[in-house]
Amino acid sequence: MDTRWIQDFVTLAEVRNFTRTAFPTRLTAAGERFRIVAVGLLDQIADAKAEIGDVPSRDHLRIAMPYALATTRLPQWWSLWSPDAGMSCSVEVGNVHDTVSAFSAGSVDLLICFHQAAHPVQLDEARFERHEIGTEIIRPYASKSLLDSGRAHLPGTALQPVPLLMYSPSVYFARLVETAVESAPRKLIGFRAFEVEMSDVLANLAQQGLGIAWLPDSSFQQGRLEGLVALGEGEWDIEVSIVAYRAQSNLRRAVSQVWARLLATATD
What we know:
- By secondary structure, this protein is of the alpha/beta class.
- 35% of the residues lie in helices and 24% in strands.
- The protein is built from 9 helices and 9 strands.
- Strands 1, 2, 3, 4, 5, 6, 7, 8 and 9 form a 9-stranded mixed beta sheet that branches.
- It has 2 domains: 3-134 and 243-263, D-Maltodextrin-Binding Protein, domain 2; 136-240, D-Maltodextrin-Binding Protein, domain 2, CATH 3.40.190.
């Protein structure tokens, strides 16, 4: 049997939606028994792969997270979460669909992602434990040169719409920015100068004075992007949570140790 088929089945079973409709689906008793067997099989395959790679599975943690968190937050988190130097880690970076699918299928041990009430990540609370480990504000930013030129004055006008550096429609942040714009007290008047998937690329474009980009707080850690200025005085901001998930059935030592330390992490 193709393991990809098993992973797809487990993913669909965990999110409880076997179609493209908004109506949840429930497994039959036989389907639930198969789900338990499938999750166990995927765990065994993952452990076997770890052993082949000469990495003791009990001291190895697999994490899935978005690129924006992997490049800015992960190093500091790992220094807090790792119990000793013998713990190793592999990280799967991807969009919301890819990381949630990997987690639901048992291909990774922990899922760390952004969460916003209007656009929640829906996982079965009976099977997955959830913990908030921080919050971030996503704000519009522009370069000083663009501000000095007069082309970045929000909300823009019909005669001078502001250039917008936006996330591609398939990206989770695109929905968050859309919510921020739609809920703002004033209508934003602008045009899409660029559409890109990654926040780092949008930040670089903003630094070059090519438009206004919505960026999370973590983008500015360790003195990064010092040339950018926040705009709008909060009018077009949106707050998001950073949440971690683990499967309650995953009792591997590495997972239990890191999860215990993660729970002790203070919320930002």
